[in-house]
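Take a record:
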Amino acid sequence: MSMRIENKVCVVTGGANGIGEALARRFHAEKARAVVVADLDGARAEKVAAEIGGVAMRVDVGREEEMQKLVKETTDRFGQIDLFCSNAGIFIEADVFTSNDMFAKMRDIHVMAHLYAARAVLPAMLERGDGYLLQTVSAAGLITSLESVTYAMTKHAALALAEWISMTYGDRGIKVSALCPQGVRTNMLMQDPDNFLMEGSVSVEQVADAVIEGLGDERFLILPHPEVAEYFRRKSADYDRWLRGMRRFRAEVQQKRAKV
């Protein structure tokens, strides 16, 4: 079995910038039948869509009614959705004392948006016994985030949702992949050139390459940084040792940042 993009209807949320934009452009290059670029930045979504012959929609992924509308309008126009890429995301440094409103915002974008997408697309996919969900999670969902508890929490939850959907609906024709990159040279990362993730970072085009390969293999974990698999193994092999190591690493990162 392999997933080919050619002649498929693909929806990408967060498609106006970064990884989402790269995915939209790559899907067009792979001869998708249609690419829907959905983003809160409607003007930028229109620009990307115009350049690839796609369709743009302004969508707040944290609002379920807007996700339902995105799926309905796409289905009405193209008949079905073959691949839904739930990709929108944000990053804000935070600790446990960060406001509840900020926790809720991250939850809505990183967790509930994936759930809203699944609720909207799964009924038709299950009816025809075929469909693919690609969820952009982040290596933080497998390992952690040093700088943001909200990012770590919500990305872990996103991974759990992807696992559950695959486990529950995989035998009914639903494929799921969790995209878990580490440092990617998006606007988000490039605004912080001293970030430790810059070392070993990859381009958005490299992420898109990894996605095409991972979808082709119908692989659950898509890791543009293969070393993340080893980090995950170390974490699961000895949690206490991993935590001690992460404390040391976090202290080193903070010390370096303090000198900048």
The chain has a mean pLDDT of 92. Strands lie at 9-13, 34-39, 55-58, 83-86, 131-136, 174-179, 221-222. The longest helix spans residues 100-128.
